[in-house]
Amino acid sequence: MGAQGTDVETIARLTAEINQLKKERRAVLLAHVYQRPEVQEVADFTGDSLQLAQQAAKTDADVIVFCGVHFMAESAAILAPEKTVLLPDQHAGCPMADMVTAEALVQKKKAMPDAVVVAYVNTSAAVKAECDICCTSSNALKVVASLPEDRPILFLPDRNLGDWVMKRTGRAMTLWPGYCNTHDRLTVAEVQAAREAHPEAELLVHPECQPEVVAMADFVASTTGLINYAVQSPKDSFIVATEAGVLHPLTTQAPHKHFYMASSKLICPNMKMTTLEKILWSLQDMEPRITVDAPIREKALASLERMLALA
Ligand code: SF4
């Protein structure tokens, strides 16, 4: 059982035990903003994929506890190979990342030998090793805009993010047919209903949503972009079309504003697998560890570093 639904005392006790063990292990705890609120609260850093990758690259801790999903912990292991990287629940994966394999990508590259391959960070290390440059939803526009005009582009695995990038940059791209199960299931009808219920609210949409939903938005950006926009905006009510975990930073940073989820379905089950208990166990046992074999790591690192140099 997770800490969700448990009492305040239990959360406080587990948090104190984690903080103590974190010091003993010289560990840093990184948490994605889609994590449970109590996990975000115990973290040293919270953020989106790009921010967490940057933290992993520069931390001087001995241990990185990655509260996110498998590809994120792999990226930390690629960027900081001398550190011990722990993923509190090793089954926390990303269905979108699983929609492209290195083998399938190698086959596609044979059919597009001139293409520059851009891989969203939501991919395995083996896929990153087969691409030219990575991107996140924060920097995808910048990454694609940096590519030579005379080369075709293969963008993977998120067709929705790729569609948004094509419309914003004007660059044609071949899109892998992957998608995020959580964002892609949001429908136009649900967004229309949310608009009718809250006509005064601005609609904030993540580009992993379907193009028809993205087209309805008042503002489209990565999770961090959406949070910053809502916090800084003079407006005070927003419909949120991304994973529900962002309500924690939104309501913490802008407690006087009103946030309405576009749908109750916007919950990523994999992101919710990390609990305070599992974080504590991982620090006690120093397991499960995430490692990446050296030949794959070196190639994947080059793709990540090309992205980080632009970020
Ligand atoms: S929210 Fe979507 S892209 Fe992110 S981990 Fe969950 S399934 Fe993967």
From TrEMBL:
For the biological process aspect of GO, one term held by this record is: 'de novo' NAD+ biosynthetic process from L-aspartate
Cellular compartment(s): Cytoplasm
Q: Gene Ontology terms, cellular component aspect?
A: cytosol
Question: What cofactor does this chain's UniProt record say it requires?
Answer: [4Fe-4S] cluster
Q: What is its EC number?
A: 2.5.1.72
Describe cofactor binding as the record notes it: Binds 1 [4Fe-4S] cluster per subunit.
Which Pfam family would be a valid example here?
A: NadA
Q: What domain of life?
A: Bacteria
Task: Give a yes or no for keyword Ion transport in this entry.
Answer: no
- Keywords from the UniProt entry: 4Fe-4S, Cytoplasm, Iron, Iron-sulfur, Metal-binding, Pyridine nucleotide biosynthesis, Transferase
Q: In which pathway does it act?
A: Cofactor biosynthesis; NAD(+) biosynthesis; quinolinate from iminoaspartate: step 1/1
Answer yes or no on keyword Ribosomal protein: no
Q: Which GO terms describe its molecular function?
A: 4 iron, 4 sulfur cluster binding; metal ion binding; quinolinate synthetase A activity
Q: Which residues bind [4Fe-4S] cluster?
A: 94, 180, 268
Q: Which residues bind iminosuccinate?
A: 32, 49, 120-122, 137, 206-208, 223
Tell me what reaction this enzyme catalyses: iminosuccinate + dihydroxyacetone phosphate = quinolinate + phosphate + 2 H2O + H(+)
Stored HAMAP family: NadA_type2 (MF_00568)
The similarity annotation says:
Belongs to the quinolinate synthase family. Type 2 subfamily.
> What does the UniProt record say this protein does?
Catalyzes the condensation of iminoaspartate with dihydroxyacetone phosphate to form quinolinate.
**Protein's name according to its UniProt entry:** Quinolinate synthase
Source species, please? Heliophilum fasciatum
